[in-house]
């Protein structure tokens, strides 16, 4: 049977789970003008989470089944420990006309499709910079999800950063890099700031300089078209301060340590997805 296209001009978007990630996605979609808040729904009984969504116009109902009954695209954004129970509970309400999406970490498409009783599913892995509209998201299409479905989800997640497509088999490695990666960068920012303090800078100035330096360097890596190695070489003049600092980083195994961190996180992600 042919898959019913999602009406791109009138579709309604629902979130099962009203946590920070769902809020970040919803805010991005509204702020970018992809959807008006009147066409976005979620469910929660707690006053704080209800107010968070209602503050930018999203409709908050009392029960998840009301979200499913109302919406064409349903995003599951719940904790991995409960996603199976949530999908099974809602299964009688799900239809083949709906596009189902999961942002749940470590939960495979084959399991989601089995629990839902349908394969029009898309798995997305965003990361925490979604909160500031700078997410790195990766999308993988399930069995009967169409190219049009993929384009729709790319547009939604493009509202909170950048989106790529990849085979689901790469998701453990993606977890190790972009999923866990923000924590590595926060650690680097903290260490840079500590270095500034050790060299005599006031703490607040050191922290601000460290964060802005990382932001600026990342922007150059994204926008310059140059390889990171070339950008590094452009800063490191002969016999200068930068190459002296780089020498110390190399002595400390900086690059190898970061590589090992990504691989270790990817391995742990694989272990968790098997459990």
Contiguous low-pLDDT stretches (5 residues minimum) are none
CATH architecture of the largest domain: 3-Layer(aba) Sandwich
The major pleated sheet works out as:
8 strands, mixed
CATH topology of the largest domain: Rossmann fold
Q: Percent range for helical residues?
A: 40-55%
Oligomeric status of the shown chains?
Answer: single chain
Read across the widest sheet, the strand sequence of neighbours is: 3-2-1-4-5-6-7-8
Number of spatially distinct domains: 2
Helix and strand pattern: EHEHEHEHEHEEHEHHHHHH
Per DSSP, the total helix count is 12
Question: What's the count of strands?
Answer: 8
* CATH H-level superfamily title of the largest domain: NAD(P)-binding Rossmann-like Domain
Shape: elongated
Q: End-to-end span in angstroms?
A: 35 Å
Helix-strand makeup class = alpha/beta
**What is Rg?**
21 Å
* Beta-strand fraction estimate: 5-15%
**CATH class bucket of the largest domain:** Alpha Beta
Average pLDDT reading: 95
Tell me what the structure shows.
It contains 12 helices and 8 strands. By secondary structure, it is an alpha/beta fold. It has 2 domains: 13-172, 3-Layer(aba) Sandwich (Rossmann fold); 179-274, ProC C-terminal domain-like (ProC C-terminal domain-like fold), CATH 1.10.3730.10. It has an 8-stranded mixed sheet with strand order 3-2-1-4-5-6-7-8, with helices on both faces. The longest helix is centred in the C-terminal third of the chain and has 21 residues, at 203-223. It is elongated. InterPro entries: 6-PGluconate_DH-like_C_sf (IPR008927), NAD(P)-bd_dom_sf (IPR036291), P5C_Rdtase_cat_N (IPR028939), P5CR-like_CS (IPR053790), P5CR_dimer (IPR029036), Pyrroline-COOH_reductase (IPR000304).
